[in-house]
Amino acid sequence: MKITNGTDIIEINRIKQNIEKYGDKFLKRIFTKKEIEYCEKRKNSKYQSYAVRFAAKEATYKALSEYINFKYYWNDFEVINEKNGKPVIKLNFEINNLKSLEVSLSHCKTYAIANVIAIFQTKDE
């Protein structure tokens, strides 16, 4: 088994400023339709929700970077929530031997942080 990790932290205000400046162009370039719908429902915490998803996408890339040898897009990584609220990373591509992706998200008034752990099955297992 091989385990890789990616962590990212972002100022929520940076995401808010980009959304306010570029609107749908920014949102559609970075986020999937499901992510936008989820964040927009959050009303008072929508910018935190967008920022933490952005951080999760960055952290996912960091955890998988040595396995991604093609041009990817922000929408190739999607953060969704299971019925119990647990966040999950969905990829719209496959990576050989990727057994599991685990994600932890958190945010406060000014920062959002994400940690992603990728677990790979190795040949000797």
Describe what this molecule looks like in 3D.
With 125 residues, the protein is of the alpha+beta class. The protein has one domain (2-120): 4'-phosphopantetheinyl transferase domain (Ribosomal Protein L22, Chain A). It has four helices and five strands. The strands form two sheets. Strands 1-5-4 form a three-stranded antiparallel sheet. The chain has a two-stranded antiparallel ribbon with strand order 2-3. Helix 1 (12-22) packs across helix 4. It is globular, with a radius of gyration of 15 Å. The relative contact order is 0.26.
Key traits:
alpha+beta; Ribosomal Protein L22, Chain A; two-stranded antiparallel sheet; globular; 5 strands; 37% helix; 125 residues
Average pLDDT, all residues:
94
For the record, the count of structural domains works out to: 1
CATH superfamily: 4'-phosphopantetheinyl transferase domain
CATH class: Alpha Beta
Q: How is this structure best summarized?
A:
The chain has 125 residues and is an alpha+beta fold. The protein has helices at 12-22, 24-30, 33-41, 46-64, and strands spanning 2-11, 77-81, 87-91, 98-107, 111-120.
What topology does this entry show?
Layout: E1 2-11, H1 12-22, H2 24-30, H3 33-41, H4 46-64, E2 77-81, E3 87-91, E4 98-107, E5 111-120
Antiparallel strand pairs: 1-5, 2-3, 4-5
Helix pairs in contact: 1-4, 3-4
